[in-house]
């Protein structure tokens, strides 16, 4: 299994910011977590509001928790709200179930971390996470 | 009252994994709790995602908490969400109300523990828990 | 970086139990955590008391948290209790700072998980963790 | 009041890392918080252990909480442990009272954030925080 080095994490973030600039998005916060859910690198653009670090982390953490993109976690939360309530409870309230949390897979398909983005619409946030992961040479799984 | 020995708990888990293999399921995490809700044995198959231990525990814990399979706890959560919200609150967020948490009863019908399984669909998870409990000579109560 | 497979984790635990039997120790609980602090395998021997899972986990988690064996974390706690109080706080009370939590290193020296043992004296607990890790072909770091 | 822009925060971190390299320190984690205690930028060097983000944050947060460097918070914790216990309690366990959390002051002396560093000895951690803050043109207050 590979790991996400700090150098790769910063590459992910700079590419995610570049995508946000290209799409003229609102200020973003981007978090890169390792496979165990700990931050490798975090950057919050000027003007990104107070809770953005926690939101971005909650998206990436949700993806790692269930082994699927936070978009799919969101679908579970909509279809089976009681299930998501339970998941949220056992996680200590750490999951944000909307698009923008994307798994990072290495060449063999192993999950080596996750990226969380917040600041614009959830769909745009996700697009930036995907762009960042691809720019660093990994495979995004927004599932 | 009987208790679930470590030997029996490991028998439950190996049989649950065998059922999962037979049904060609995704990687599973299986937790065996004693009557007090403490782990006797826990095993997470390779590739089972980060929060799986907590999810499996939350299903088994919910079953013990109310004395019924987590399938029935899930029905309560769907029919009376305000009730489940209260239950979740007083439990400190420890309950996951979907199938896959199954009570273990001895020959006299006493509850001696619970098994929680997660990784595939909730119905498949439950089938593995039932198979494991039966293989160890106990009576499953999936509620 | 390697990972601790379920098969390897169970090998660690059976060897730790064998060491406990050889030394005629009290019933043990052994926890194997991955590099992110999540359980891979957990087994509690018959007669091992209620909180043993949490204690074993707390030792292994403390080792991973600071990148040193829980024996060394314990030395910090004794020498600088205010520092340990802070560490305990930011960890959400998850650290048990006594011997028995041992890092698992792969051939290149990378930390790939940790083993926590509890049930007998802390020194004996640690000896079992070390024996288990060695039996599985990894390098223990009880530091 | 000035604020710490993302650009300035990254300047602080790169200078802190440069100081660590110059002093041949262990891998570091550096956190830059704004005046409200929220992360602006966080970077964890390869090999920096699991809890390092929380430790670095706990040092910087402690500095902001009391308006003094975490070195001085540590002195309080040693001299009046009952007081620190109360502070830790009301903060929800968020304070790590050892050197390495340094206030960032602007030219008028206003507190505009704090930097937390962990990974080597507390004294070395603090030296890196100070070097980073100075390199970005702000005034460090290590208290």
Unreliable spans of chain A: none
- Output the CATH homologous superfamily of chain A: Haem-degrading domain
Shape of chain A: globular
CATH architecture of chain A: 2-Layer Sandwich
How are helices and strands ordered from N to C of chain A?
HEEHHHEEHE
Query: Helix content range of the residues of chain A, please?
Result: 40-55%
Class based on secondary structure composition and strand pairing of chain A: alpha+beta
Give the count of structural domains of chain A: 1
Oligomer: homotetramer
Organism (chains A, B, C, D): Pseudohoeflea suaedae
Protein name (chains A, B, C, D): Heme-binding protein
Short précis:
With 143 residues, chain A is α+β, with helices and mostly antiparallel strands. The first copy, chain A, is built from five helices and five strands; from the N terminus they run H-E-E-H-H-H-E-E-H-E. Chains A, B, C, D: Pfam families: HbpS-like (PF03928).
Report on this model:
The structure is a homotetramer of 143-residue chains. By secondary structure, chain A is α+β, with helices and mostly antiparallel strands. Chain A has a single domain, classed as Beta-Lactamase (2-Layer Sandwich). In chain A, 46% of the residues lie in helices and 20% in strands. A five-stranded antiparallel sheet of chain A has the order 2-1-4-3-5, with helices on both faces. The longest helix of chain A is centred in the N-terminal third of the chain and has 17 residues, at 6-22. Chains in contact: A-B, A-C, A-D, B-C, C-D. Chains A and B meet through helix 2 and helix 4 of A and helix 2, helix 3 and helix 4 of B.
């Amino acid at each position: 299994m590979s790991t996400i080095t700090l150098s790769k994490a910063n590459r992910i973030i700079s590419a995610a910011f570049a995508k946000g600039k290209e799409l003229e998005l609102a200020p973003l916060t981007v978090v890169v977590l390792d496979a165990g859910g700990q931050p490798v690198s975090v950057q919050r653009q000027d003007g990104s509001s107070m809770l953005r670090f926690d939101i971005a982390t909650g998206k990436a953490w949700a993806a790692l928790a269930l082994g699927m993109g936070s978009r799919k976690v969101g679908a579970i939360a909509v279809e089976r709200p009681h299930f998501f309530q339970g998941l949220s409870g056992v996680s200590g309230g750490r999951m944000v179930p909307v698009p923008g949390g994307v798994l990072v897979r290495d060449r063999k398909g192993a999950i080596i971390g996750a990226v969380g983005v917040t600041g614009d619409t959830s769909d745009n946030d996700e697009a930036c996470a995907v762009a960042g992961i691809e720019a660093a040479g990994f495979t995004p799984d927004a599932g």
